[in-house]
C-alpha cells in the first residue's frame, strides 16, 4: 500500500516516526505537502494533484497541514475532502473542528464533556462584560496551536481592554475562558480506543502556560480510569481516530476539565517520557 503522510518536513520528529512505522508495516510512505496541492475542476483531468499523485494513495495520515491563514488551511482541507474513497485519519472535518476552539468546545459540550466556562464573541464590549463576570480568565484566539496568542487577564488590569481589542482586531473574534487554577496540565494521547501515553506538562519558572512550545516540560504520569474515560470521550466527541487531549485539574477541588483536543498531535513528549512509540498503532488503525 502507498500511504500518504501529510506534513511539511520528513525529518520532523512525529513525521519521521510515522514514515518509519509505515515502512515497518511493509507499506510505502509518500510525503504529501498540502501547500503544493492543485485542485482541477470542470475539465477532463479533474481531480486533486500533487507531485506524487494523491489520487493513487491507498490511505492518508495527516500530521501537519502547514501554516497559513484560515483561508489557506480551509482550502487544503477542502482538497482532502475531495479524496472520496481514500481513508484519511484524521478526517478533514475532524481537523477543522478541532482547529476551531469554538467548534471544538461546542462538540465537547454536546457530548457532556466538562470544559471551563467559555464565551466566544466578536465584540470587545461583550468580551469585557464576561471578563468582569468571570474575574480571572484566559483569552484565546479562535484558531491556534502551541499556546500561541493565549493570555491570562484579570478584571481591573489596566491593559485588559487593549489586549481584548488586539485579539479581536487580529482574529475577528476572541474566546473568553474561565481560568482554572492548576499546576500545569495533562496531555493524554489516544489512538483508537486506547490510551497510548499520558504526561503531566509543567510550566517553566515564572510562566503559567505549560505547552512544550512555551517552555513547559513533560513528566510521565499514570493515566487513571477517570482520565482515560475523559480522554476517550473527548476523542469520540470530535470524531478523531487519534488525538492529543489536554486536561487540567483544579488545584483546590480536583475537578477535571478538557481544554483542547489536538487532531494533529506531536508524539515527542509521549515517546521521550513514556518510552513508547504510538506511530505503529496509528498506521495499524488506518490500514486495518
Automatic annotation (TrEMBL):
Keyword tags: ATP-binding, Ligase, Metal-binding, Nucleotide-binding
Record Pfam families: RimK (PF08443)
PROSITE patterns (alphabetical): ATP_GRASP
This protein's GO CC annotations: cytoplasm
Signal peptide residues on this chain, from the entry's feature table: none
A GO molecular-function descriptor: ligase activity, forming carbon-nitrogen bonds
Domain ATP-grasp span(s) in chain numbering: 105-287
Protein's recorded name: RimK family alpha-L-glutamate ligase
Amino acid at each position: 500500500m502507498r500511504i500518504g503522510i501529510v506534513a511539511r518536513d520528513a525529518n520532523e520528529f512525529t513525521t519521521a516516526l510515522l514514515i518509519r512505522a509505515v515502512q515497518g508495516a511493509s507499506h510505502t510512505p509518500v510525503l504529501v505537502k498540502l501547500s503544493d496541492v492543485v485542485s482541477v475542476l470542470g475539465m477532463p483531468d479533474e481531480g486533486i494533484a500533487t507531485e506524487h499523485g494523491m489520487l493513487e494513495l491507498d490511505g492518508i495520515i495527516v500530521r501537519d497541514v502547514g501554516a497559513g491563514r484560515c483561508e489557506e488551511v480551509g482550502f487544503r482541507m477542502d482538497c482532502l475532502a475531495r479524496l472520496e474513497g481514500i481513508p484519511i485519519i484524521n478526517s478533514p472535518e475532524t481537523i477543522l473542528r478541532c482547529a476551531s476552539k469554538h467548534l471544538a468546545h461546542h462538540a465537547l459540550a454536546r457530548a457532556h464533556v466538562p470544559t471551563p466556562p467559555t464565551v466566544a464573541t466578536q465584540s470587545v464590549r461583550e468580551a469585557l462584560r464576561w471578563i468582569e463576570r468571570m474575574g480571572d480568565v484566559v483569552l484565546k484566539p479562535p484558531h491556534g496551536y502551541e499556546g500561541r496568542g493565549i493570555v491570562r487577564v484579570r478584571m481591573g488590569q489596566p491593559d485588559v481592554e487593549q489586549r481584548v481589542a488586539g485579539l479581536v482586531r487580529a482574529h475577528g473574534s476572541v474566546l473568553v475562558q474561565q481560568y482554572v487554577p492548576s499546576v500545569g496540565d495533562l496531555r493524554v494521547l489516544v489512538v483508537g480506543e486506547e490510551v497510548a501515553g499520558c504526561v503531566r506538562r509543567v510550566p517553566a519558572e515564572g510562566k503559567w502556560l505549560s505547552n512544550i512550545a512555551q517552555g513547559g516540560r513533560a513528566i510521565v504520569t499514570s493515566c487513571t480510569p477517570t482520565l482515560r474515560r475523559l480522554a476517550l470521550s473527548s476523542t469520540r466527541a470530535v470524531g478523531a481516530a487519534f488525538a492529543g487531549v489536554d486536561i487540567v485539574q483544579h488545584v483546590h477541588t480536583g475537578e477535571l476539565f478538557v481544554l483542547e483536543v489536538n487532531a494533529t498531535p506531536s508524539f515527542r513528549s509521549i515517546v521521550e517520557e513514556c518510552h513508547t512509540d504510538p506511530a505503529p498503532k496509528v498506521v495499524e488503525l488506518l490500514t486495518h
